[in-house]
């Protein structure tokens, strides 16, 4: 199916809100809501696929495999976290080509040193701004279609302060980034000022439990953002549901308790595609019996 164009959505001035999809169960459930965009988070992809922290441990190949699967399963157009581009300039070129072929509509690259760390955890270090500028230029040149957008993220707020982060954002926009992303801003005042000073489309990260205030899409649009990601939502919701279910199971010794509603099994069979399997089996069972 044809996915929604992020480039066209931003050009139209329509605010883009993309919830994170941490695994394929979240993706098939989200398909029932006809979302135009969704986000593939490095943190939650690594956690759900490998049970590991977002600390540069997962490889490019592992992440590409997960992103490719998500693009196939989800009806939404996928905005994908590509960490640092998984290395130097040649790696960035290879990453952009691979993610674009996977089917994403935007590729997010950050200016952290390798191995990177989650943007809302400590001990992040950034590369020199000129190194990231070169990565952005390589990323823009590597893409086959200008429908594939490059999102440039800076993690400099922690080490270089707000002014340092804004300075990098301006440089990244000048280098050709389609969208600029200042990670871990710490107040609505900083968010508003960043949007005032950087004229490129700005993306906000609404990471539940992180350092940035969580605002609604309407509030973010009013501040001046063009788009926002909500990367933690389905992952944290799923973790809470599992914790609640396990607590009820330990207490009652059964999965069937009023304390934990379960998704309807028959409905999930429909979402995951079993009707097509059953129809295939009915067809071929008839053909075999006729022969």
From TrEMBL:
InterPro entries attached to this UniProt entry: ICL/PEPM, Pyrv/PenolPyrv_kinase-like_dom, Pyrv_kinase-like_dom_sf
A single GO molecular function term of this UniProt record: lyase activity
Signal peptide range: none
SUPFAM superfamilies, per the entry: Phosphoenolpyruvate/pyruvate domain
Keywords associated with the record: Lyase
Claim: Lyase is one of the keywords in the record: yes
Record bears the keyword Ligase: no
Pfam families recorded: PEP_mutase (PF13714)
PANTHER family: PHOSPHOENOLPYRUVATE CARBOXYLASE, PHOSPHOENOLPYRUVATE CARBOXYLASE FAMILY PROTEIN
Official protein name in the record: 2-Methylisocitrate lyase, PEP mutase family
